[in-house]
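Students often ask what a holo structure prediction actually looks like on paper. The answer is less mysterious than it sounds. You provide the chain, you provide the ligand, and the output is a string of discrete structure tokens encoding the 3D arrangement of the protein together with erythose-4-phosphate.
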Amino acid sequence: MKIFLDTANADDIRTADGWGILDGITTNPTLAGREKRPFREIVEEICDIMGDRPVSAEVVATDAEEMLTEAREVSSWASNVVVKIPLIPEGIRAITVLCQEGIRVNCTLCFSPAQAVLAAKAGATYISPFVGRLDDIGHDGMELVAQIRQILDNYDYLHSQIIASSLRHTQHFVQAALIGADVATIPFQALEQCFHHVLTDVGLARFLDDWDKAGLSIF
Ligand code: E4P
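The corresponding structure tokens follow.
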């Protein structure tokens, strides 16, 4: 499973990238808004950090023609930009055209398997089911990821990858991997949580203590 960081914060991206486990970035208008600086500047800096790894940047138009104009603009900022388009009828129209133009698309705000089929048919490179937001309204968000996995596998929609999105904690991350999501996009704090286990901390302290008591050294 690829790991994307769900953030527009360059410092968090640099920290996570230092761990050597980052495959891409997803941003959205809310995350970009938190950074309090021009959108283009944010996207260009993140794309620069990530090199050739994909960085999703979202359009804000809701009309297909305007989405296309915004998408072409945003994708011209760096070769690793993936344009994020919402899963609405105008969005699907735009995705069809963008795919014909060779512009990679992350189809976002997917909340049902039927929507995912439409996104795959339109040629989206990535489809982003929002797990946490479904959980928030009493649904089983991860079940949606499992259903989309089955549908894509049934029909060999090999061009579309599932990004398990709106992940909130370690269990979401693990479940996404068990189901076979192609990608998990996860906020920085939730990724940090994945490192930790109380027995790791206790075990390390005990090893170091025993080593000191024995008076051993490596060099
Ligand atoms: C995905 O691409 C979205 O940016 C993100 O996962 C949304 O998550 P949220 O529900 O925590 O805002």
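Residues 198-214 form the longest helix (17 residues).
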